[in-house]
Amino acid sequence: MEDEGVFGEGETIGGDYKTILKKLIDPRARTMYSILELLLQNVKSEPVSASDIKDKLGISKQAATNAARRLEETGFITRTPEGYMVNQGFIINLLIQLVGEILKKFEL
Fold first, then answer.
1. Confidence (pTM)
2. How many CB atoms lie within 10 A of CB 4?
């Protein structure tokens, strides 16, 4: 995937979605999944600080910030002065692209 920086809500995903998904297969992805789950629990996607992530997941602040940074690099979350937020537009766009690929395979 080309380096296109952080994706904003509603922006299209360039490059290969398989590359993005491979990053989530990384052995360190468990903490990344936990952060995504924590951020997705809040439907309004209010920012969550690294300290809150650390406390709620029972991990070190370094583990929280390292995993959050990796999620930010993929585009799944964004960082604000108040904390981390799920990039809902990115996730929705990714899911739409995946569904499109599946439909193409079945020629629906």
1. 0.58
2. 12
User: Which CATH number do you get for residue 95?
Assistant: 1.10.10.10
d(CA 48, CA 72): 13
Compute how many other C-beta atoms are within 10 angstroms of the C-beta atom of residue 7: 20
Q: In this structure, what token pair is assigned to residue 94?
A: 């990714």
Q: Is residue 35 part of a domain?
A: yes
Tens digit of each residue's pLDDT (9 = 90 or more) over 23-50: 666 667 777 777 777 776 655 668 999 9
3 assigned to some structural domain: no
Which DSSP helix (H) or strand (E) runs through 69?
Answer: helix 61-74
CA 98 – CA 74 distance, rounded (Å)? 16
Q: Give the residue carrying structure tokens 């070190």.
A: 60
Q: How many domains does the chain have?
A: 1
